[in-house]
Design goal:
The chain is mainly alpha-helical. It is 66% helix and 4% strand. The protein has a domain at 601-726.
Length: 732
């Protein structure tokens, strides 16, 4: 490809013996090159240099090829210097080899010097230089050079065209790519299967899947690259069904997939949550002998996790002989997605023991697990690691840290992270506003929202969910209506079901239950189960039994498998003494296969997360905990704390049972925290359901008697109990 080599005889002006010695040296040099011993070949070249002997062009080209192959820039420059002695580096054949050597070694400047110094440049010269620019991250310059090449009337070959189309792909230069494609169709530029494949890739990278598919279907022969590009592109553009159709067609056409094809197909399965298709691709992967491929192993872990089979993710993970940070992070994600957050934290510790350095994505995953479990101490240590890695100013990690601190009940910690982020985006502002809203700090949330608008940061749909939630928890009905109206009138967005649910919550919390019901009836979209659950919750707070019954019945129709509305409706009938209706609701619950979600609370003690169920027997220290809890109940009775079982109508999925209430999971967790932590330490509890009225009243008294701040995060809200008072002001 480099042109014809010109023979350059060994020469020395004085003695014939020197030529003989030079021939022997040249033979040894070639022998060392043939055996791949570049260092020894270079030693022989040094002998020729001292004897001032020149060698033939083919031997120089062999030396340069070997230098490029092993990426030895030092030896390559020595060969170049030897050639310069005889002014050979300006020749087309050797100049091309020099440029190719510098390209392989990544020395763009030296390649350009050779290119500029060549007397005559052929198509290979231009192609090598264009390729050098593209590979070194300067595709724009590669395209400029391609234009100069055509201006010089040097006709590109198929390799040149393929490289130039690749440069268009790198910078999504769609118009330039289309122009090249048009010249190919007009016969001005050459084409083959590789050029067509790069065209498919170029259109796909530019987001033009229809044009990519047109080129693909017009190909007389399709190689695995073309198939892979199309399958992967469809998968990455959320067209998983089309990706899998193409994959099956490729297999039926007898084209053997490569690992990248299989990764694309697995990505499609992940987006579709298609476990069956994913398993079939796993079988195909084993059949083609790719079971040891690291990238495929990582894709399998991710696919099984997304498709709901964390056990299969774990099996793949355990069988992998080599694991990288992506393998560990994919397994962490699989655990986190399926609520196995304790396993996530344990696996993260094992990852560190193995010496795997977490990356940004790993930190995002583990911070989500800490947030879910309210693992405050572990979250703080991970934060310290992020700071030591100088990643704390990153917007995505900053948002994850704000979220983690917020979910752990540490509002001040969340705000400190927020203030340390250099450049805020919509996501970071929204996350901090959400923290304020969830902790009942409505005025602070709205103040921050106003500041966000002053900074000219545009809110998104999630921002308004948080803003409306802040208005709801703070009882700011007028402000809530103002912000709800602005969603469409000011920002041109259509309110979502979540926004309507927030407005129902705002009206319901304010006691405007008729207005809330009328609002639902006038919604321009069909009210979903979230809206009706919100209405149901509001009705239970104000004992509006008739509206509560209607809301509960709507919830059951829309989501028959969700247990809470049945329990709540059953409780409503029970409070009215309508036991036949109670029996009917429970029978309907059994018929629909609805499950009651058991109340579960967790607390982090010395990096370990302890979980408790109602009337728990599983914890190793449960006997001590119960004794202490009974003592605490007696103290509370002495100060007049009375159970409020007659108003336990919150959406808690826990039926009215006074004997069980005394051992609700949050009380067990609080007492364990009291036993295991120093006096005055904040006790942080996470509960999976909404706190019932009786437990809410009890925990207020606990905070006073124990002289502790107790932070309880339930499924809807954060309660900060201190000195017998809750931050929600009994309004949750």
């Amino acid at each position: 490809m480099f042109g014809t080599g010109e023979k350059t005889p060994l020469q020395h002006g004085d003695r014939d013996g020197d030529n003989d010695n030079g021939c022997f040296t040249l033979q040894r040099l070639r022998k060392e090159l043939a055996n791949g011993r570049l260092d020894k070949a270079m030693a022989e070249l040094e002998g020729l240099s001292r004897a001032e002997l020149c060698i033939d062009s083919n031997t120089y080209s062999m030396l340069l090829k070997q230098c490029g192959k092993v990426k030895s820039l030092v030896y390559g420059k020595q060969v170049h210097n030897h050639m310069m002695t005889y002014d050979l580096d300006h020749q087309t054949f050797l100049g091309n080899h020099l440029m190719e050597m510098y390209r392989r070694c990544g020395d763009l400047d030296s390649a350009l010097l050779v290119f500029d110094g060549m007397y005559n440049k052929n198509v290979f010269s231009w192609t090598i230089m264009i390729s050098s620019y593209t590979e070194q991250g300067y595709p724009e310059k590669g395209l400029q050079l391609f234009k100069q090449m055509q201006d010089k009337n040097v006709k590109p070959d198929k390799v040149t065209v393929s490289i130039v189309v690749g440069a268009c792909s790198a910078i999504c230069a769609l118009e330039e790519g289309r122009e090249i494609h048009l010249k190919i169709k007009d016969g001005v530029l050459e084409s083959d299967i590789f050029v067509e494949s790069t065209l498919v890739n170029m259109y796909a990278k530019c987001g033009c899947l229809a044009e990519a598919r047109t080129v693909f279907e017009s190909m007389r022969l399709r190689n695995v690259v073309a198939w892979t590009v199309m399958i992967t592109s469809y998968a990455q553009h959320d067209q998983g069904e089309e990706a899998l159709i193409l994959f099956r067609r490729m297999v039926s056409d007898g084209v053997k997939p490569n690992p990248y094809t299989l990764v694309g197909a697995l990505t499609a399965c992940s987006s579709l949550r298609s476990l069956g298709s994913g398993r079939n691709i796993h079988v195909a992967m084993l059949r083609h002998g790719f079971d040891c491929n690291l990238t495929l192993g990582n894709a399998l872990i991710h696919m099984y996790g997304k498709c709901g089979s964390w056990e299969s993710s774990w099996n793949v993970f355990c069988k992998m002989h080599v694991k990288d940070v992506i393998s560990w992070t994919s397994m962490l994600d699989a655990y986190t997605m399926h609520g196995r957050t304790k396993d996530t934290l344990q696996l993260f510790e094992e990852m560190q023991w193995e010496g795997i350095i977490p990356d940004k994505v790993t930190f995002l995953s583990i911070l989500a697990a800490c947030a879910d479990l309210s693992a405050h101490e572990q979250g703080k240590r991970i934060h310290a690691t992020i700071i030591s890695r100088k990643l704390h100013t990153d917007e995505m990690l900053g948002s994850a840290l704000i979220h983690m601190y917020g979910r752990c009940g540490d509002v001040e910690g969340a705000r400190q992270v927020f203030d340390n982020i250099h450049e805020h985006n919509t996501h970071t502002w929204t996350t901090m506003i959400t923290v304020y809203a969830q902790h009942g700090l409505g005025r602070m949330a709205l103040s921050l929202f106003d500041e966000m608008l002053r900074k000219q940061v545009k809110p998104n749909e999630i921002t308004f969910v948080s803003v409306l939630s802040a208005c709801s928890h703070a009882g700011l009905v007028t402000e809530g209506w103002h912000h709800f109206d602005s969603i469409s009138k000011v920002y041109g967005m259509s309110p979502t079901s979540e926004h309507y649910a927030c407005m129902v919550d705002l009206l319901g919390r304010g006691g405007f239950l008729k207005d809330a019901e009328d609002f639902i009836q006038q919604m321009p979209i069909e009210p979903d189960v979230l809206v009706w659950r919100t209405m149901l919750s509001a009705c239970t707070v104000f004992n509006d039994i008739e509206r509560g019954k209607r809301a509960a019945e709507k919830c059951i129709v829309l989501d028959p498998g969700y247990g809470a509305p049945y329990v709540l409706l059953s409780n409503i009938y029970a409070l009215r003494g309508q036991w036949k209706e109670v029996a009917k609701v429970r029978e309907l619950m059994r018929e629909n296969g609805a499950k009651k979600q058991p109340g579960k609370s967790s607390i982090e003690i010395k990096d370990k997360v302890h979980e408790f169920l109602v009337d728990d027997d599983a914890h190793p220290r449960i006997s001590e905990i119960r004794v202490e809890l009974d003592k605490l109940h007696k103290k509370m009775e002495e100060v007049g704390c009375i159970a409020e079982t007659n108003v336990v109508l919150h959406d808690v999925e826990e039926e009215i049972d006074a004997s069980l209430m005394k051992h609700h999971s949050e009380r067990l967790a609080i007492v364990f925290g009291q036993m295991m932590t120093p006096p005055k330490t904040v006790i942080r509890i996470r509960k999976n359901l909404r706190v019932c009225t009786d437990c809410h009243a009890t925990i207020k008294n606990m905070s006073k008697i124990l002289d502790r701040e107790i932070i309880v995060r339930d499924s809807h809200y954060f309660h900060h109990f201190k000195d017998g008072v809750c931050s929600c002001k009994d309004y949750w």
